[in-house]
Automatic annotation (TrEMBL):
Species assigned in the record: Streptococcus pyogenes
Cellular component, GO annotation: extracellular region
Alphabetized InterPro entries for the sequence: Enterotoxin, Staph/Strept_toxin_CS, Staph_tox_OB, SuperAg_toxin_C, Superantigen_bac, Toxin_b-grasp_Staph/Strep, Toxin_bac
The protein's name in its UniProt record: Type A exotoxin
Disulfide bonds: 109-120
Listed PROSITE patterns: STAPH_STREP_TOXIN_1 (PS00277), STAPH_STREP_TOXIN_2 (PS00278)
MF annotations from Gene Ontology: toxin activity
Length: 236
């Protein structure tokens, strides 16, 4: 019998009396089933490896009006493109000093004809100036399996405003390494999701599993909105 994951992350020190607009938890019928997914190992490869991380960088170019290109390097790339929700969001970060934290993909990543060593992400951008904490914020992650709280663990962020993508990656990485959420093969979990509860706006959740027919680039579009949360006032 395959199990069901539910993850709720809470910032330590948070007062639970704050007003939130809580979206209902997803109905099981809304969640994708891992047993129907072909090539699930392609999700494993996204979260098993290291994320793209760069600090205090500026964009140098754009391919389309809603993306930004950076001259930054990693083990497998010399240029990085982030695709955002729209032109307005891209303009907010264009030519600004930013930090980047994202889950990259390579297949179907297009920058320009000559960009042989390039990587792409969705979202993953926060302002650099004034957004760092002297002491990293500790976040408690509580995990329920089949409706029973089964474990908890901590993750940290050094940002005041942190992307949901960064927190989501850290949670999935821990669960992959320690609970085999993803493997280089089938998952022992049939469904699962992580829920974020920001202050004064509607909560949202990410499905841990993709549609049966998927590509890495299509699945990672969950981060395109570049959702950010205040690390002092949000539950995740």
């Amino acid at each position: 019998k395959k199990m069901v994951f539910f993850v709720l992350v809470t910032f330590l020190g948070l007062t639970i009396s704050q007003e939130v607009f809580a979206q209902q938890d997803p109905d099981p019928s809304q969640l994708h089933r891992s047993s129907l997914v072909k090539n699930l190992q392609n999700i494993y490869f996204l979260y098993e490896g290291d994320p793209v991380t760069h600090e205090n960088v500026k964009s140098v170019d754009q391919l389309l009006s809603h993306d930004l290109i950076y001259n930054v390097s990693g083990p497998n790339y010399d240029k990085l493109k982030t695709e955002l929700k729209n032109q307005e969001m891209a303009t907010l970060f264009k030519d600004k000093n930013v930090d980047i934290y994202g889950v990259e993909y390579y297949h179907l990543c297009y920058l320009c004809e000559n960009a042989e060593r390039s990587a792409c992400i969705y979202g993953g951008v926060t302002n650099h100036e004034g957004n760092h904490l002297e002491i990293p914020k500790k976040i408690v992650v509580k995990v329920s399996i089949d409706g029973i709280q089964s474990l908890s663990f901590d993750i940290e962020t050094n940002k005041k405003m942190v992307t949901a993508q960064e927190l989501d990656y850290k949670v999935r990485k821990y669960l992959t390494d320690n609970k085999q959420l993803y493997t280089n093969g089938p998952s022992k979990y049939e469904t699962g999701y992580i829920k974020f509860i920001p202050k004064n706006k509607e909560s949202f959740w990410f499905d841990f599993f993709p549609e049966p027919e998927f590509t890495q680039s299509k699945y990672l579009m969950i981060y395109k909105d570049n959702e950010t949360l205040d690390s002092n006032t949000s539950q995740i």
